[in-house]
Amino acid sequence: MSSRVRICDIVRDVAERTPDAEATVVDGERWSYRELNRRVDQAARALIAAGVERGDRVACLCTPHPDFLVSLMAAASIGAIWLGLNPRYRLSEMAYVLGDAKPKVLLARTAVDDRSYAEDLVALAAGCASLKMVVILGEDPICAGAASYAAFTAAGAVVDDDLLRRFRDEVDERDPCMIVYTSGSTGKPKGALLHHRGVLDFCDAQNALWPTSPLRVLNYFPINHIGSVIDASCPALAAGGAVIFMEKFDPAEAMRLTVEEGCTWWGSVPSVLQMQVALPNFDDYDMSALQLIVWEGAAIPGDLLDRLLRIGPPMATNYGMSEATSAIMATAPTRDREVLAGSVGNAFPGVEVRLVKADGADAETGEEGEVWARSGYNMLGYWRRPEASAETLTADGWLRTGDTAVRRSDGRYRIVGRIKEMYKSGGYNVYPREVEDALESHPAVTLAAVVSIADPLWAEVGVAYLIVEPGTTIEAVEAYARTRLANYKIPKRFVLRNELPLLPIGKVDKIALKALAREAFEADPTQELTNS
């Protein structure tokens, strides 16, 4: 599709054609493509001066902000591999990811809202042997052992145009450009290794399927999430559009920015759209600039869909995963309620889809099968996980998703369920084993089992069943969980029990536990947390 080779080329190309076009906005500060490209080149020189070479990793701990885009584009432009860290991560989560990716440079904020990361950054630098430099973004306070961003970029001045060009000329379109961490059934996060060509071609394909001109998108998604990097930011830049960043989500502020910045592409997960639609003055917002409404990550409730249909523009949705560089199936823009409510559309452009039954045969129309996808967008594999890569990617290029779907008579697909235990809460993937591991690290927790139940706001939420030492309270376990897990991973319900249902082989019977959770909580969503 695209003649571009590196993902940074999308910034350079627009900067050459329309240098004064608006590229990013945050808190009223506006960067043109000329300015964004200048900052990318500046950061790339600084990374080279810091000793970053092709294949090295560069990590970034940041809010949704143009600084994250600069770090991504700069690192990828010289052949390095970028990874984003969510500010919601706790120290143990950040330490695991950095210990696995082994970055050479970490660019980070030291304060977000009321949380200071200074002590965490010192601990990470001490515990990650590969880390040669910590750079503090913006004008945040400098922590011990770190360099200011001004000093970091000043050091890059010694890198001339010829050296920068040599680094970039060595980058191949199939080289990895980023690692997106997504947990697996074992509970340990795995890094999906995405490549330049996959990202570039995905951007072109999404923009062709969902044409919006100009493309102006509000991005408040965390930078470790595929939705922030691939679904929102990169397609907008590839189209010469603008990314309006919002560092901390607030429903009313998001609506204000959507209107005042003339956003033409309104996209999120259903739970967040529900928060915005529920605003008492929602009908007062002028949504006339919108050209497309998109939701991803979960099925949409019927009442929310009906409310969005009344706004006017066409809508679309998709089904995808990080390992596929995002969409595997998608709907074209439409106002057909049945299509939007009952399907995730057809195969995304450039993607082959198979539905494979348990016996290995292809499912017929109306039959359920696991979704397999093959395309040039698929990840190269999991970072340092050859066995997991072989389990997920077949020798002939098919990506096994672990999700099940049915092909409808009209050729569109409907997602049915998941082979894996993973569930989506507010658009985030949550893996029970990872949560269970964190809960069981509490000295008083003997056994933890987490299942999911339906939720009207978050689509699904977790219920944790625990066997604990006498005298241990739910409140104590939940407080402990908040020190170990990002808030979206924390179960919404905790139940203490003397025993859990077991299978004959001695494992927890998750099917029985899930049925118990549904019976207890779905019938009465307001039920308080209880010991039992």
Measured as a percent range, the helix fraction is: 25-40%
Give the strand order, joined by hyphens, for the main sheet. Answer: 9-8-5-3-4-10-11-21
Remind me, CATH topology of the largest domain? Rossmann fold
Shape: globular
Describe this structure in words.
This protein is an alpha/beta fold and 532 residues long. The protein has three domains: 9-195, 3-Layer(aba) Sandwich (Rossmann fold), CATH 3.40.50; 249-418, ANL, N-terminal domain (Rossmann fold), CATH 3.40.50; 423-522, GMP Synthetase, Chain A, domain 3 (2-Layer Sandwich), CATH 3.30.300.30. It is built from 17 helices and 28 strands. The protein has an eight-stranded mixed beta sheet, sandwiched between helices. Strands 14-15-16-17-18 form a five-stranded mixed beta sheet. Strand 3 (57-61), helix 3 and strand 4 (81-85) form a beta-alpha-beta unit. Helix 1 crosses helix 2 (33-49), helix 8 (196-209) packs across helix 9 (226-238) and helix 10 crosses helix 11 (270-277). The radius of gyration is 23 Å and the shape is globular.
